[in-house]
Amino acid sequence: MPSSAGAVAAVALLLVLLARGAEPIGLWLPPPSGGGGGGGLGAGAGRYLTQEERWMNQPLDHFSPTDHRQFKQRYYEFLDYYRAPKGPVFLYICGESSCNGIPNSYLSVMAKKFGAALVSPEHRYYGKSSPFESLTTENLRFLSSKQALFDLAAFRQYYQETLNAKYNRSGADSSWFVFGGSYAGALSAWFRLKFPHLTCGSLASSGVVLSVYNFTDFDKQIGESAGPECKAALQETTRLVDGQLQSGHNSVKQLFGASMLENDGDFLFLLADAAAIAFQYGNPDTVCSPLVEAKKNGTDLVETFARYVKEYYIGTFGASVASYDQQYLKNTTPTPAESAYRLWWYQVCSEVAYFQVAPTNDSVRSAKIDTRYHLDLCRNVFGEGVYPDVFMTNLYYGGTRIAGMSYVF
Ligand SMILES: *[C@@H]1O[C@H](CO)[C@@H](O)[C@H](O)[C@H]1NC(C)=O
Ligand SMILES: *[C@@H]1O[C@H](CO)[C@@H](O)[C@H](O)[C@H]1NC(C)=O
Ligand SMILES: *[C@@H]1O[C@H](CO)[C@@H](O)[C@H](O)[C@H]1NC(C)=O
Ligand SMILES: *[C@@H]1O[C@H](CO)[C@@H](O)[C@H](O)[C@H]1NC(C)=O
Predict the structure, then answer these.
(1) Residues enclosing ligand 2, CB less than 6 A?
(2) Could you tell me which of 62, 210, 254, 394 has the fewest CB atoms within 10 Å of its CB?
(3) Is it true that domain 3-211+394-408 has CATH number 3.40.50.1820?
């Protein structure tokens, strides 16, 4: 093996090339992994290198010297490509969803090339790594990126020892490289920032390192990606739906198979996400082609959009209507596969925000999806006092002025 600095440079270069072709990973509100959904997104059955569960004990609160409670964190390892004893260790950070294995992705190509061991721990609280059966707001207070980063540090040390024991050596220290996308991309960069001695580099794919309170740019980007014609069709659809809700026509929800969403904001958020997803994951035509065609041939835009939402967003992509329902988000005992919605909203409401509000001008989504809607959701779902202090979050990590080196974004 080359020196670790050389290895980092080589890895970094390859990553820049590979990251572009990589599958999009991570999502603001992930569809439940496992059963059928997530079309083309997550790794489906047979697309994992391994799904064999392993466990380690983690302190519940890394910041308390007196609280010695622990919880079991799930992780996976794949050693087929590992060139012992000098090969590096690639740590793939699982983000805001249940972590069901190590996906057979670009990472596997990299691991083969560099003779790396692959490991992937699940994020605390998500999937099977929850410290509590009941996800009450009180019990969620140990869910934060800061605790998650400390988990990664403890895991890194624990796994190094496991590896050393397996290969009958002591005190060895491998070259570690961390990977992640979206929120896990931010964790990847932040891990390198906060624990520079534990990793020699970080890939932060689409890393959301800057916390934003009113994240209007998200909607603006959708409009730009759509292009003028499709954007206009989307905006007209939004106006029509808004109008129907305004005049008390709740039947419009039925059209989308979303009658269960009593709160208009929840319903409109579902529609906004449904449109956004086509652009976020690079399939603009799925929504634009039918809408633009309907506009030209005089077909009802709302009905056309409703068909897209039902067939594509819910059918193919695997989104869940219920997950937009604040009543559902209040459930403190969801299944491990479905807990991600409540958990991610907690992180949004308590730390990172990224409120995907409508810009005051020219928005694609309904203007009713505003700051108030988000704050009301946070209060309704988690109670008083849960509030995202994005200023402190950015002060802690540095936002886009993140310090340090050996990152690939
Ligand atoms: C492990 O190391 C010990 C002590 O050096 C040695 O006695 C033993 O044979 C080694 N075992 C293997 C499997 O290499
Ligand atoms: C976010 O938007 C709301 C409503 O437009 C506004 O009142 C608030 O000051 C904004 N907050 C920040 C931090 O920009
Ligand atoms: C008009 O466009 C819609 C949406 O693509 C399509 O479903 C419909 O069949 C078209 N109608 C006509 C009369 O061409
Ligand atoms: C909003 O749009 C109007 C009309 O297009 C424009 O004059 C105004 O500058 C825009 N405001 C902002 C804040 O972009």
Answers:
(1) 213-214, 371
(2) 254
(3) yes
